[in-house]
Specification:
117 residues
C-alpha cells in the first residue's frame, strides 16, 4: 500500500487549490492531464498501470518508498515532495480568481422595507 493514500490525498488537495485559485476547471484538469502525460511519456507507470514511454526506468532492488513499488512513481517520496511544494506554492499564490459574487436574496424572501420617518 505504501504512501498511495497520502499522495492521493495530497493530489486532491493540490487540485482543489488549483480550482480555488482560479475558479475555473481548466487549471486542475490541465495539471492532472499533464502529470499523467508526463509519467506515461517518460515510461513510468500511471496509477499502477504500466506505460511504455521514451525510457524504461529500472527500479530493481530499490526501496518501495523511493520507487513507489508496483503502483509507480505516484506512490513514491518524490511525489510527496513535489505535491507538498505545489501545495505550498498554491497556498501562497493569491490567484487570479474573480471576487466572490455578493449573495442575492432568495426568490421566496421579500426584502425588508422600513417605513420612512
Amino acid at each position: 500500500m505504501g504512501s498511495r493514500p497520502v499522495t492521493t490525498f495530497l493530489a486532491g488537495w493540490m487540485l482543489g487549490l488549483c480550482y480555488l485559485r482560479t475558479r475555473h476547471l481548466a487549471l486542475p484538469v490541465g495539471v492532472h492531464m499533464g502529470w499523467n502525460w508526463f509519467l506515461g511519456t517518460m515510461g513510468f507507470g500511471v496509477s499502477g498501470k504500466e506505460a511504455r514511454g521514451w525510457w524504461t526506468p529500472v527500479f530493481e532492488g530499490r526501496p518501495e518508498w523511493l520507487t513507489g513499488g508496483a503502483y509507480g512513481l505516484e506512490a513514491s517520496i518524490f511525489c510527496v515532495v513535489v505535491l507538498s511544494v505545489a501545495i505550498i506554492a498554491l497556498t501562497r499564490w493569491k490567484g487570479s480568481a474573480a471576487p466572490e459574487p455578493e449573495a442575492l436574496p432568495r426568490p421566496n424572501e421579500a426584502p425588508v422595507l422600513t417605513p420612512p420617518m
